[in-house]
Each structure stands twice: as C-alpha cells, then as structure tokens.
Predict the structure.
Amino acid sequence: MMKKAKAAAVILILFCAFGFGRVPKLILDDINMESAVGYDYVNKYIIKATSVLPIYKPDKSVGNETFTASDELSKETLKKINMASSRQMVNGKLEVALYSKELAKQGIGDLIDTLQRDPSISERLFLAVTDEEAERILSKRYGDRDTGIYLSMLIEQNMDVGLVPTYNLHQFLNTYYSKLSDPFLPLIGQKGKDIHIKGIALFKGDRYVKSLRQDHQFIFKALLQKVKQGTYKLRLRKHHFIAIENIHTKHNFHVENKKNKPEITIQLKVNGIIRETRGKKTNKKAVEHIKKLMEKQLETQGTEMIRSFQKLHIDPLGLGTQVRSRVRNFQDQKWLNQYPHIKVNLKAHVDILEKGVVD
Amino acid sequence: MKTEIKPEFLVSPFLVSFLVHGTQYGVGVLSFQRELAEFVGHDAWISIIITGFIIHILIWMIYTMLNNDKGDLFTIHQRTFGKWIGNLFSLLFILYVLTMAITVLRSYIEIVQVWMFPLLKTWPFALVLLLIVYYVVTSGFRAVTGICFLAVVFPAYLILTFFVPIEFSNFRNLLPIFDHSIYDMVKSIKGASLSFSGFEYLLFYYPFIKNPASSQKYAHYGNLFTTLLYLLIMIVTLAFFDQEYLKIVIWPTLMMWKIIKLPFVERFEIIGVTTWAVVMMPIICLMFWSASRGIKKLFKVKQKKALVVLLFICFTISCFLTERETIQQYNQWTSEIGFYILFCYLPVLFVCYHIRFKMGKKI
C-alpha cells in the first residue's frame, strides 16, 4: 500500500513537471536571428532601431533583410519589428551594434543598458559609431556575407592587425562605469559603395565629443595596448615618406610626486622593419637618422594628443587608473580636478630591426 | 554515545575533504565577489585568505569538540547546556540549515530563470529537484557522500574556464595592495561567510566517518582547496572588471563566462549554469540529510517522515519567494544569520563546552 502511494506521488510530480514546467521552444529554422542592430536619432525621446538579419537561401548564398522601427525603448522597437516579421526575432547572435554620430552626441548610456541587461547578448559584441545614419549603412549589402557578420569581421580584422584598439562590449562597460577613464569606439563611415573604419570616436561618459585625428591613431593604440602588428608612416620631408612595418610596441608608465601633483612619464618602445622608402637610402647613418626622426615624431604626436584629451577633460588612455594603481589612498575627485593640469612626458625609443633585402 | 552507527554506513576519512569542499563550493561562487568588493574593492582577495584562515580555526574547534565528545551537535549541546536548552539550540540550528537549503535552492532556480528560461515556473522545477533530493537522502549518508564526490570531480573542468577572461584582464587593478583599513576587511568577511559556509555540517555527519579523529586533516584540505579556488576566481574577477562596474554586476562569475566563445557553442554560461545543477545538488542533499537527522534525534520520529515535512516547508517557502528583491533580501538575512552562527556562535559554543567539560571533571 505504502509503495503504491509512493509510486503515485512520483508519477504525480513528474506529470506536474512535464505538464507545467515547460518553456516555449525556439526552433532554429523558425526564428530570425539578428546579426547587427543600428540606432538612429529621431528626436529627444524617440530612437529608430534597425535590425539586420541574414537570410540563408536554398542555393547556399546569404542574403540580408532589414527591419526598422522607432520607439522610446529599444526593446519596444524589437516588438514593433516582430510585428513586421514573419518569424520571431531573437538577439542571441548579435555581433555588432551601431550608433549614429548624432545619437552618440546625445548619449548612448540608456541604449547600452539593454545590451548589458540582456543575458543572451555576448560580451564580445562590437560597438561602433557611424558617421551617417546607421540605417543607411545597415540597409546595404557588402561582400558576400550578411551585413552583421561583414561588419564584425571588418572591425575584428582592424583590431588584430590595424590601428583600432581591441575593444568589445565588456571593455566599453569597464571604461564607461569607471570614474577614471572614458570610453571610445571605432568610427565607421561610408565611402562610395564600401564601408571603412574612419577613425576613433572619443566619448566623455556616454556622450560623443570628438573623433581622434588620423595621424594620432598609431600613438593612441600604442599607448593603450601593445601593438603587435602595426604599420607607421614616417614623414621625412615634404613628399618624402618611409613605411615602417611589423611594428610591435611596449609601454611603461612611471608616476612621480604621487602625493601632491602626480607627474606621469610614459616610456614607449617601438620595434619595426623598414618596408618602403621614397627618396632615401638606408645605410647605417640614414637608419640612425630615421630612428631619431621617428622618436621625435612619436613624442610630438603623443604629447599633442594627450594635451587635447586634457583640454576636453577626457581620459581614454586610462591615465587615472594607472595613477590609482600606484598611489595609496587615492582620491578620485582630487585627481579629476588635477587631470587637465597634469604633466605627462612621453619618451619614445625606436629600434629598426631590419630594412628588407636591399640596402 | 547511545547509538553506535553500523560500520556498513560509515565513509572513509578522506571523503571528508570532498564533503567539506563540495558543500562550501555552491551557488555563492557565482556571486560572492560583489559583496566582498563592496567594502574592500581591489583588496578583496586578501579577505578571502583571511576568511579561509578563520575557517581553518573553526574547523579545528569543531574537531576538538567532536573528538572529545565522540558524538555530534546534539550530544554536544545536551552536555553543554543541559537537555532542554541544548535541544532548543539544536532545533534553532536545524532551522538555520533549513533556511540555508532554501537559499541555495531558490538562488539556483533564480539563476536558471534569469540566464536561461525567463518563463520557467519556480514550482515544477523545485518539485523535480526536491524529488531527487528525497531519493538521494533516503538512500542514506553514503549516497549523499557519493553525490558530493561526483559534484567535486565532475565540474572540475570549470576551473579551466576561469583562466579565459585573463585575455581581457588588467592586473594593475589589484594594486596597490592593502589599501583598505582593517575595519573594512572585517566587514568584508561578513560578505564572504555565506560562500564559505558548509563545513559546519561536520557537526552532523561526524559519527558517520570511519576513524573520525583521523579525518581532521582531510577537512582542512577541503577548506584549503576551497580557499585557493575562491582566491583564483576573485583575482581574475578583480582584474577583469573595473571596480565601479563590478558594483552593479549581480553574478560576476557568469559574466566572466559570457566572454568565453567556443566554435560550437556561442554562450558558455549556459553550460556553466547547467553544470551548476550538479554542483548545488549535494549541498541541498547534505543539508536535508543533516536537518532530517536532527529532527529524528530530537523528536524520535522516522528520518523519512521528517524529511518529507522539511522538503514540503522548503518547497512552499521557495515558491513564495518570487521577486528578485525579496530573494535578495532573504539571502541577505540568511547570510547575516550564517555569519553570526559560524563566526560567533561556534566559538562561543567551543568556549562554553570547554568550561563545562573542565568543571565536569572537577566534580
């Protein structure tokens, strides 16, 4: 009797579990997985969201479909997009999120919130700012892939070997929440039919303030991370340039006078190989000259760039975190007040390792 | 001792390290970093070492009492405070174990709801989990130990995953060392207590160990392993998150898994959460085993009947905890109670027991 009651209880529990414990299923073929999303500015309260999703055609080629909707909340736009779509939209495979420059000027903090709050969105998501409307960039098709994958490959490739610092959603959030550093994002622009990375958009908090000058991009990445495979164009005289390739860099921070007014010295070590010259021989004396010139050029570019950051009260290089990790009882507010007047020295040391196969 | 446990129900002494580590390493691992970093920021890893050390002392205290008494919590309570007051304290301790069990169960279900299935109802899932608990606990202590052993060995591969976030980490975040006052450090220990609790069940299963006195070193090994593992996770977390960002992340460990990308699986934390079912199962099993055994000894009822009642209470309460805020509030209370029981009550008991014992000898 007892045994029967027990068996009945087990069956009842299992029945309840299967009956009430189910969650709706999502079958891969019956959902739309958006691969990129773009946000545009409509007015102060309303944003326009554009979703791109890949369409896998029977002949194995990949097409694109874009949906656009406007609303106050970005999750609400997803609902509106769902109304226009034949299949349920999910965002688990999102690769890239784009923000138009105009929107970025108003602040993107609230829009980042939906990405960060949603557990189905990867921390490796790439964020970028677009020079024009995000919708225009997303509605076109580039290369042989769908736009989302294409954009993410474009950004990733430029992070690996180009001049864009490695930077994903996680790192953005780290710098965004930190009081001592400010975020930045790659800036994407359209050139004719193609898209390309135009530069770097600098933020103060969640607002876009300025884009980095083209010639500062190399030194920006070198001072932020280790450059592993960079190229640098060295200007000798007017119309005379040298290309240094396979550059890898290292930097070290030294902070002096920690108690009152910190003084930062950055030592930058650059190793590279000469790949192309125009109008210059590369004998021993000339290489020495090139080294000196490059050191000087890097130093002026670097100090110029840091000065411009200090003027804007932004700290994308994270100098504040560098000082914090070296100073006991660090006070955030005191540092923030001091920051524009801090003296930052940059010392570059260049080594030309090789100069190709001819002298 | 009144009743000797039959030798076929005993477990080997070395399994104690699995029992201790298995119960310490639970749901707390997914979220303990935040409570610690709230007070001591980048020095949180030092608090982990200090807490681990204190736990070693507490384990030593428990063993001194148990070795002396050759019994368990109930005999210790009875001998120290007399029959009635002692039994009352035992009952309160059982209540504490029950609240802890509810915390573990509800926190895990909440994680599944937030990270995997937002539409999953609490009660059917809790029902199935508690059915497994019933099955394991009624099979006896040896089965519970077996589950503990599995729960340590099977998810061990997850240790490797804690090295992946290093790619995006900045170890300068940890500097300067010792930047916080002693007072802050002490406060942070309170936050760590919930994730280190689990060794106190030694007081319940001590009579079930073969040559119990020889198992002390294994208990210390278990705690040492927990401390080292927490230390690794804490250091990686501090390097991976900025301080301000860490303050708003509810489950930092799961956030760290989000960065892992495998060619065949886009989101690793799904695997992590699923594996965690194996990690938290033995904790609940051991808790219910301890609580039901306590009820059995106090009220002289059958353990199975006591177990069913306890499971029912747990089920009902965890169904009533529906919102994030209430769950958090509840967890905070349990954490608080746990802190006082482990770090205040156990030493007090230790002192009382010894005073009593010495007086008893004189008379």
